[in-house]
Design brief:
The protein has two domains: 60-177 and 353-451, Periplasmic binding protein-like II (D-Maltodextrin-Binding Protein, domain 2); 181-352 and 454-522, 3-Layer(aba) Sandwich (D-Maltodextrin-Binding Protein, domain 2), CATH 3.40.190.10. The chain has 19 helices and 17 strands. The protein has helices spanning 2-25, 38-43, 74-89, 100-113, 128-133, 141-147, 149-154, 188-194, 204-217, 272-290, 305-310, 325-332, 351-354, 368-380, 382-390, 438-448, 465-477, 489-503, 505-522; strands at 60-67, 91-98, 119-122, 164-165, 168-169, 172-173, 181-187, 241-243, 254-257, 267-268, 316-321, 339-343, 348-349, 358-361, 397-401, 404-407, 450-451. It has a five-stranded mixed β-sheet. A three-stranded antiparallel β-sheet has the order 11-7-12. It has 523 residues and is α+β, with helices and mostly antiparallel strands. 41% of the residues lie in helices and 13% in strands.
């Protein structure tokens, strides 16, 4: 019985072997692989052409609203940008330059009315942080991570710490210098002609005899040009006081001693040290006006000093200085004049300076992702950056080297000075007179500058918005007293400060102190 079963098993095995041999030799003539089974077909990896594609981007126009004088050939530059962005991200751009004197007012009207905007130039001196608290701009952390890899590779991480509110990022700073100093800047041919000892000129008192000399000897020059007032200039450069917190009407009203790292005390424009500085400056301003050093329309003028500089009517300016600043002034005159400076202030890296030139994305943008894509190109692509800053090659400038250009005079573009406004200044072409190591010097200047003890502190004005609104109205009302063009400036200063007191300046000062103390404790 067992032998019979064993024989059956052998027969079955032989039968299976024969079947397999027949299958192998049949159908394909033994020369081709067998057809795959359905299961094998389904398990094959899809061909490359079958891979799922990224969804195509719908056409979108990204508006870029920025601080700059409209120029004749903006439309030509826009056309070239559109060729680039259509190919890269199926987008076009709309350039919207607004002249500096009108920028803050016009953009705030646009924001308040809910007008559609995408990329918006902003800065600490344009009330960036206040606009954040109003909800004008959207958070950027996720957008930066998704579409801003080039930005994070290019920027020093310190840049991205300053434009934050409650830990959230609301703007991308321009990659440029992050510190500066006040300087006395003079036209070099005038210095040489009268042998002016520039290195001894630090205060207005030092300048006074030379103002008289220029008035007597250079009738085509305005010895001391002033336009409308409202700013502080170098008023506090000779002291240890530096501004902090809100600047209503572009006027610094709150200060700290930057030489102290502990026990930082916030003072206001009503405290005696600041009052004394204001009185001294306003008295000199009035004296210069009465002596005829200052232009007669100082209190109301809206003339851009850049235009007068080109005409050869400016010999002296109080300027913010950095390596290459004198060359930039020369370029603003198409190299008709050279300038030299005496730096009168220690360079200091502050939150305000690191947030002094940025782009945000408006809450009214219909496609924030596309806006961030465009901004990423503004930080990484030399063609795009230089197209906006310098215009079109062979139309607005000639190449003079791999990274150097010669602007074409009266070409219709490239004179607005957008180098510090847009994206990444470190990939701007160099212009005549700019040294090859300009950007290397900037990096060195940034690294060697003193860090403010309040670097990274951001004031949240949520608890004092009403007071700041009132302070802004008062600062605007009295802004001309700093020009010298208004009689009795000291009486007006006292009037102004009384109104500041009634409007709640002390409440704002106390709020800044509370937040500074909390910020220091958290660190």
């Amino acid at each position: 019985m067992k032998q019979r079963k064993r024989g059956m098993h052998i027969l079955i095995a032989l039968g299976l072997m024969m079947a397999l041999l027949l299958q192998a030799c049949s159908g394909n003539g033994g020369t081709k692989d067998p057809e795959p089974t359905k299961a094998a077909e389904e398990s094959k990896a899809p061909a490359a052409t079958d891979a799922p594609k990224e969804p195509e981007l719908e056409p979108y126009e990204v508006s870029i609203t920025y601080h700059g004088k409209p120029e004749r050939d903006v439309a030509l530059v826009e056309e070239k940008l559109n060729e680039f962005f259509k190919e890269k991200i199926n987008a076009t751009v709309k350039l919207n330059p607004i002249v500096g004197a009108e920028y803050k007012q016009k953009t705030e009207l646009m924001m308040n009315s809910g007008e559609k905007m995408d990329l918006v130039f902003t800065a600490s001196w344009l009330d960036f942080f206040s606009n954040v608290t109003k909800g004008a701009f959207i958070e950027l952390d996720e957008l930066l991570e998704k579409h801003g890899a080039g930005i994070t590779e290019q920027l020093n991480p310190m840049y991205l710490e300053a434009p934050r509110m409650n830990g959230k990022l609301y703007a991308i700073p321009t990659n440029k210098e992050i510190t500066q100093s006040w300087a006395v800047t003079l036209r070099k041919d005038i210095v040489d002609k009268y042998q002016i000892p520039l290195e001894t000129l630090k205060t207005k008192a030092d300048l006074e005899p030379w103002m008289q000399k220029i008035k007597e000897s250079e009738p085509d020059i305005v010895p001391n040009f002033v336009s409308g007032g409202g700013g502080d200039g170098a008023m506090y450069a000779a002291s240890n006081w530096r501004p902090v917190g809100p600047t209503p009407g572009k006027l610094a009203l709150f200060f700290y001693d930057y030489t102290k790292t502990d026990g930082i005390q916030i003072v206001s424009a009503l405290d005696q040290p600041i009052v004394d500085i204001n009185k001294s400056e306003f008295e000199i301003a009035r004296k210069w006006y009465e002596l005829g050093y200052t232009n007669s329309d100082a209190a109301t003028s809206k003339t851009n000093i850049t235009d007068l500089r080109k005409e050869g009517k400016i010999w002296y300016q109080s300027t913010v200085w950095k390596p290459g600043a004198d060359i930039e002034l020369a370029l603003s005159t198409n190299n008709q004049y050279e300038f030299v400076s005496n730096v009168i202030e220690e360079p200091l890296v502050t939150t305000d300076l690191t947030t002094g030139s940025m782009f945000s994305i408006s809450r009214t943008s219909k496609d924030p992702e596309r806006a961030m894509m465009v901004l990423n190109y503004l930080h990484t692509d030399p063609y795009v950056v230089n197209l906006i800053v310098n215009g079109i090659e062979d139309v607005h400038y000639k190449k003079a080297g791999d990274n150097r250009i010669e602007p074409i005079a009266d070409s219709g573009y490239g004179t607005s000075g957008l180098f510090w406004v847009v994206g990444n200044q470190m990939i701007n072409y160099l212009k005549p007179g700019q040294p090859d190591d300009l950007y290397t010097n900037w990096i060195k200047y940034n690294n060697e500058a003193k860090r403010s003890p309040l670097l990274g502190f951001v004031f949240n004005d949520s608890n004092v918005k009403n007071e700041i609104t009132q302070l802004t109205a008062i600062a605007t009302e009295y802004k001309a007293i700093s020009t010298g063009g208004i009689e009795n400036p000291i009486k007006l200063l006292e009037e102004r400060n009384k109104k500041f007191e009634e409007a709640g300046i002390e409440k704002v000062r106390a709020e800044i102190q509370t937040q500074v103390d909390a910020w220091k404790a958290a660190r």
